[in-house]
């Protein structure tokens, strides 16, 4: 019986050790899964991964997709590299002390990947707007607007806008900020100044209309002169042609007296004359039938067409 008892206790000990082993294996498996799960980070499209090792940047160019890092030692954070928009409203003064109210500004920008780690170290992504965009955009805009008169600002708004854009782009580029566009979306002056500008614009438009009308009248006069000269030239050519034709006919008649009869026959319309003969003894046709008559001393009367 003692042997039986010893055997039973031994079996119970082996069973307990097996269960403990399974528990340990399960724990290890869970730990391995946790470690593997925390060894990879997915970087989304439009973002770039920045890897930190105990708080120090060791890589700032991780592309979109699955990226490996050592669990509990390294960490990957995502930075949005897509184009972003910064918008601000401010006031400014022109060189002739006119106030520009509610000046709405908009800046399009994105981060320069080659300078991203330096930007994170020196400024911090979360501080880009407050430390770089807010002070520089407002200051540069006010400085450029302060160089021009209010009327010039209204008339040459695009030129001032381009100057501000170039200055902002040059200022922020060394910090890793690529500015792609800048816009002044609103210009608001005092009511009195805006009314004076409107009056000048209307006066300028009226003057332009008068200039256009004057130019139109001048062009009409030129066209009339050209038409008159062309008509005079045409009449001259026609008169010269008629004079030449008469001269040719006269020369031909002088050379051949019968030529006049040829011309009469050429211009005859086929209608027989109502009377032929001399003025003393004319022959009058009653039914349009004529007998043969001699042509000597005979006058032929041809009715006009």
Give an account of the 3D structure.
- The protein has 305 residues and is an alpha+beta fold.
- The protein has four domains: 79 residues, no CATH class; 106 residues, Band 7 domain (Tetrahydropterin Synthase, Chain A), CATH 3.30.479.30; 70 residues; 33 residues, no CATH class.
- The strands form four sheets. A three-stranded antiparallel sheet has the order 3-2-5, with helices on one face.
- The N and C termini lie far apart (167 Å).
- The C terminus is likely disordered.
Q: H/E series, N to C?
A: HEEEEEEEHHHHEHHEEE
**What number is the mean pLDDT?**
78
Say which CATH homologous superfamily of the largest domain is assigned: Band 7 domain
Share of residues in strands:
15-25%
Report how far apart the termini are: 167 Å
SS element count, helices: 7
Low-confidence stretches: 4-8, 290-305
Number of domains: 4
What is the global morphology? Answer: elongated
Radius of gyration: 54 Å
Question: Total number of β-strand segments?
Answer: 11
Structural class: alpha+beta
Helicity range of the residues? 40-55%
Largest sheet descriptor = 3 strands, antiparallel
CATH class of the largest domain: Alpha Beta
The CATH architecture name of the largest domain reads: 2-Layer Sandwich
Provide the spatial order of strands within the biggest beta sheet. Answer: 3-2-5
């Amino acid at each position: 019986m003692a042997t039986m008892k010893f055997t039973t206790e031994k079996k119970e000990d082996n069973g307990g050790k097996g269960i403990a082993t399974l528990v340990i294996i399960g724990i290890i498996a869970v730990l391995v899964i946790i470690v593997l799960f925390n060894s990879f980070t997915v970087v989304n499209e439009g973002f770039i991964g920045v890897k930190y090792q105990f708080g120090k940047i060791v890589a700032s160019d991780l592309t979109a997709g699955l990226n490996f890092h050592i669990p509990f030692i390294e960490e990957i954070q995502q930075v949005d590299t897509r184009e972003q928009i910064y918008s601000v409203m401010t006031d400014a003064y022109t060189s002739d002390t006119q106030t520009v109210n509610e000046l709405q500004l908009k800046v399009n920008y994105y981060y320069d990947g080659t300078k991203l780690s330096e930007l994170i170290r020196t400024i911090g992504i979360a501080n880009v707007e407050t430390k770089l965009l807010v002070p520089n955009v407002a200051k540069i805009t006010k400085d450029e607007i302060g160089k021009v008169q209010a009327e010039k600002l209204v008339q040459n708004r695009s030129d001032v806008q381009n100057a501000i854009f170039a200055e902002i782009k040059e200022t922020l580029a060394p910090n890793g900020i690529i500015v792609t566009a800048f816009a002044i979306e609103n210009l608001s002056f005092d009511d009195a100044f805006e009314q004076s500008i409107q009056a000048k614009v209307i006066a300028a438009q009226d003057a332009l209309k008068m200039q256009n009308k004057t130019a139109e009248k001048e062009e009409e006069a030129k066209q009339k002169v050209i038409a008159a000269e062309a008509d005079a030239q045409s009449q001259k050519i026609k008169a010269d042609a008629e004079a030449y034709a008469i001269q040719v006919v006269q020369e031909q008649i002088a050379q051949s007296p019968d030529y006049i009869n040829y011309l009469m026959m050429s211009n005859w319309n086929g209608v027989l004359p109502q009377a032929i003969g001399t003025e003393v003894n004319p022959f009058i046709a009653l039914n349009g039938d004529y007998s043969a008559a001699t042509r000597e001393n005979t006058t032929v009367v041809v009715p006009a067409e």
